[in-house]
Design goal:
95 residues, alpha+beta
């Protein structure tokens, strides 16, 4: 079954998604499972979420991202712009 893994960065002060970036498909999801080493925070039919995750965890997942997925450098730039102390970083898998 095909799936997509994406990064969502949320601003809890405004309840807004301030950044969304696609990371990859099934192989990237497999990498995320290895990096995170924990079950999803929330799981429903067709949707799994890990939250919060750290920028470092996302950067490590991005090392194995799909061809058009976010690169580790993109994740580092996002971490500078949206620090984890103020924003909530979330990985979302839809399938």
């Amino acid at each position: 079954m095909a799936s997509d893994l994406s990064l969502l960065i949320l601003d809890p002060a405004t309840a807004a998604v301030v950044c969304e970036r696609w990371l990859g498909r099934n192989a990237t999801h497999d990498s995320a499972l290895d990096v995170l080493d924990r079950a999803p925070t929330s799981a429903q039919t067709g949707l799994d979420c890990w939250s919060p995750v750290t920028p470092e965890e996302v950067r490590r997942v991005a090392e194995h991202s799909y061809a058009d997925g976010a690169t580790p450098e993109e994740i580092e730039r996002a971490a500078s712009r949206f620090p984890a102390g103020r924003y909530v970083w979330t990985l979302v898998r839809d399938y």
